[in-house]
Amino acid sequence: MFPELNNLLNTTPDRAEQGKLTLLCDANTDGSFLVHHFLSFYLKANCKVCFVALIQSFSHYNIVGQKLGVSLTVARECGQLVFLEGLKSSVDVFFRAQAEPHPLQFLREANAENLQPLYEFVREALKPVDDGEAAWRCPVLLVDDLSVLLSLGMGAVAVLDFIHYCRATVCWERKGNIVALVHDSGDTEDEENNILLNGLSHQSHLILRAEGLATGFCRDVHGQLRILWRTPSQPTTQRDQSLTYQYKIQDKSVSFFAKGMSPAVL
Amino acid sequence: MAAVATCGTGAGSTGSVVAAGSKNHVTSFQRRGPRASGSDSSYSRLVSIAGTRPSVRNGQLLVSTGLPALDQLLGGGLAVGTVLLIEEDKYNIYSSLLFKYFLAEGIINGHTLLVASAKEDPADILQELPAPLLDDNFKKDFDEEACNHKTAESNIKMKIAWRYQLLPKMEQAGPVSSSRFGHYYDASKKMPQELIEASKWHGFFFPEKSSSTLNIEPCSLTHGYIKLLQFIQNIIYEEGFDGSNPQKKQKNILRIGIQNLGSPLWGDDICCTENGNSHSLTKFLYVLRGLLRTSLSACMITMPTHLIQNKAIISRVTNLSDTVVGLESFIGSERETNPLYKDYHGLIHIRQIPRLNNLIYDVSDVKDLAFKLKRKLFTIEWVQDNYLRQERNIYPPGFSYLLKQKDSAWGEGSLQHSTFLMSFLAKATAFASRLVRHSEPLEQTGSGRALQAAGPRLWRDGRRQEAPGLLVTPP
């Protein structure tokens, strides 16, 4: 986790909030550093994490996690982390017919209707352990990323349904959190992606949006981060609070600063 | 061998080693400490793979793309287990050349090749590979060409345009011996037949394989993609590239080259209509990437993205690939006559570079890159280099230029001063040269303590001569 981002979001691993849906969004840049942040944050906060990693392999997250201070192999062995590696399982699902329903079943089917097997997997993974031993703090579902599900043949409505089911189970029933990454395609007319993004933006409590700079590539400022706090269930009598920072990604951390106040310029 | 030497120093300095996977899967993405048990034999096994080297930044195993200039732009090479997507230029001239360089590099390094095409028979593709350049016969020609435009360039220190001097020069190194990482190829000659026959390759020609039946239930992938995936998976399993076959212990890299993916010849209609089968290609790329991540292979795909009707698919394809490079050739476009792009054949855009095992990635600072294919060499350069070279053609070094500076007598100025100050007076920079330049240097007529600073030949011999240039009175 990045300590500067914790300060900006006003949280620490000890007093992490519960029952929240956080939406990570990136436009014209790579927002995967936010996924690494939240993964290490919730592992340090002693939460049980179910990570649906559809884009990269386990060792990628593990190596970056070690730079941020968590070990994914240890967490997986002691049961804190349930890791679904999309790339590796897709090969198994695609080439060999599985006996029992696999969470990525839709890869084999021509017209997959919904993501129910994936939801069953998440529900099973985050089931509360009821044999009395030291339980984890709260369940967390982390998805990287949801736009890939659109590329694999699911409709935007099916993905929104999946998130809705997960919210009902994880956020409301078990008082946990959900963090999901969606790519913003910008001006390319990807309508399904826009439907998904708008639908999730209306449901989420916190939106972190990483954008590339409007002026193009810069060596010292890698992008701009917009943080938006929302209260989706209550009527909007109070304004949603929004902050904008610019950031630079370094080897083991990310430094944030106000717009135009990059240390390279001052 | 030089490759082994760099592997050794790389491992020693970073302290991490690209080692084989522990149980079943051999993947280059795992990294172990130097004290891991039983890793010595597997470490030496991977280090000794010809044609690979570990990345300086994260220890990732890299292979060369066949173009050392492109390797430099991609941060050292193509990482094993990843996909390099080349967006084809309009007439598929330079992208097929890059494809051939990739395969030729595999033959030189002794890698196993898998060539898939729906247009040409892979055997024919292999016959047309360029020949590698060896040291002796090429070095003379390369030095001749290089010294044509390296005369005084690197020696002149720029005074006004000094920021350009700080940017790194593109590597113009000559050919190297065959044991090093990247090789140079001669596009005008063919690869010797004995090298092709000595290499191990598998071909997938879609028109031949399309008739056999499928043994997988129909999903939204087109027929051609399913057959290609099964073929690739078969080769990977049979030859042991993923380490799961107990009989085969593979010590080599599989280079997969897929040509014109997404074109109608593969049975896909995304280039024909806008509402075609929009998930077929993206699903294919996803499963392909899953196969690559769990095996010792690297893949280059060329795709005619300029033909894809639905632009959303292009952004999805970019997100599903690791490295994306776009080629834009100048043939037939208005840029052919643009003086800025004189001598170049096209632009090369590095659209995406992956961040593997890391938060950061190697990105080059130079963004406007152009390529040219000379007789024997495919070079990539920064576009502004050409512009500066043209400026020097108007004001060649070795002549002196007079320039009036503010509140001072006439004096000699440097090349950059004259260009900068005079070009805004003239309608075109060519006219400025006529204003400023005079052919002979001034003669010393005095004692030599003060430099001759008067106007050219104005007061020679005590008599006023006629003034040059603009001050001539009309007859």
From TrEMBL, chain A:
Q: Which Gene3D superfamilies match?
A: P-loop containing nucleotide triphosphate hydrolases (3.40.50.300)
Record's InterPro entries? ELP6, P-loop_NTPase
Which pathway does this polypeptide act in? tRNA modification; 5-methoxycarbonylmethyl-2-thiouridine-tRNA biosynthesis
What would be one Pfam family of this protein?
A: ELP6
Q: Which family does it belong to?
A: Belongs to the ELP6 family.
Q: State the protein's name.
A: Elongator complex protein 6
* Organism of origin: Felis catus (Cat)
TrEMBL record, chain B:
Looking up Pfam families in the UniProt record yields: PAXNEB
Does the record bear tRNA processing in its keywords? yes
Cite the residue spans of the region called Disordered. Answer: 443-475
- Membership in a protein family: Belongs to the ELP4 family.
Organism from which the protein derives = Felis catus (Cat)
Please give the chief subcellular localization of this protein: cytoplasm
Q: Where in the cell is it found?
A: Cytoplasm; Nucleus
Role, per record: Component of the elongator complex which is required for multiple tRNA modifications, including mcm5U (5-methoxycarbonylmethyl uridine), mcm5s2U (5-methoxycarbonylmethyl-2-thiouridine), and ncm5U (5-carbamoylmethyl uridine). The elongator complex catalyzes the formation of carboxymethyluridine in the wobble base at position 34 in tRNAs.
Q: Which UniProt keywords apply?
A: Cytoplasm, Nucleus, tRNA processing
Q: In which pathway does it act?
A: tRNA modification; 5-methoxycarbonylmethyl-2-thiouridine-tRNA biosynthesis
* InterPro entries according to UniProt: Elongator_complex_protein_4, P-loop_NTPase
Can you name this protein?
A: Elongator complex protein 4
Name the gene that codes for it.
ELP4
